[in-house]
Amino acid sequence: MIRTWLKSLLGSKAPQQQTTSTPYAEPTEQELQEARDRLDELAKLAIFGDIGGMRPQKDNRATSWWGGNFLGAKGEEVPICSQSGRPMHPVLQIRVDELPERPPEFEGLALITIWMDLQSQSLEDGTNGNTFAVRSYDDLAPLVPLGFGYRESSELPTFPVRWRDAALEQPGWEDMADEVPTNVACASDDDWFFNSHYASDHYYELRSRYPIKLGGWPAWIQGSNWPRDGQYFLQIDATDKGKLYLGDAGSCYIFKTPQSWEIKKDCY
Questions:
Q1: Is the pLDDT of residue 64 over 60?
Q2: Domain total for the chain?
Q3: What SS3 state is found at 177?
């Protein structure tokens, strides 16, 4: 059961259309080892976060929060969605020095806040300021309260975020297939990938229990959908406890691009 779920999570191999003119040979042991080595090179640190599960420090905004109690720079206003004209809602605040380990993407950052227009139906391809907003800060000291405080809004519950654990995460199959020899990618034996030491029971537990994932790789549902020149930062899954619903058990993925930030949404 766990292995089946993991295989679904990591993507599936498309059936190969073999012809007499382009047959594929069984991979050699050298090719398989090359694939395993490449998998090790591509594995990235992921941090898993939970909503609630600890006593809230209601007056402490300088910590990680869900649904409110955010900080911002002096003079900043609550972001307004450029598409709808509606004020955005605080969704996730990340205090970076609280993480059990720091993914390389978060170096140099002290705090990140993520806001969304919760009524928008266009999260699939939002850009910063349109349907969502990301703000990042390199110093906590000058920041001041911004937006709803503790339980001042009924749109989302306000919970402290608890950073639970870290693990190395392998890419999904669609992000991996072009990185290995063709004979390996087309082989019927895929245990080297779907039953790798990264696809462990412990990883399954982290992915299934906690709705926030920083770093690592995007866990695509319908298929890889990277923005041009995008650097993946984090993923938020739909959560009943957090009252965030993203289609049918969906997820949203936030990327940094050379120009700004972009969001992608995926669901079943």
A1: yes
A2: 1
A3: helix
